[in-house]
Amino acid sequence: MLTISPDTQCQTVISTFEVTPGTCHDLLDALNDAYDSFIRHQPGFIAGAIHVNDAQIRIATYSQWRRREDFQAMLRTEEMRKRNRHINDLCKSFEPVMYEVVAGY
């Protein structure tokens, strides 16, 4: 379960994807499969969520990890490297960025 609070001791990663309406659902399928069959089973993973805007041109994922190093280790696996190459082919761009929660309301 996601907990968004400055008191939560975790690493937050927000990734944004720019897509076309024609590739939006293909990318959603790829992201859902990645989270369901691989990412959520990685050491340090706490929780995640996938969001899509109503125009179907932007997708955002939000994930929490126990430590920054856990997220980085997941990215370096051969499985995730392969998945990221496929994800890259489905979108115009994507960018994962690490954040710290400053406030929650």
UniProtKB/TrEMBL annotation:
GO terms for molecular function: monooxygenase activity. Keywords: Monooxygenase, Oxidoreductase. The keyword Membrane does not apply. It holds the Pfam family ABM. Residues 11-102 form the ABM domain. It comes from the Bacteria. This is Antibiotic biosynthesis monooxygenase. It comes from Stappia sediminis.
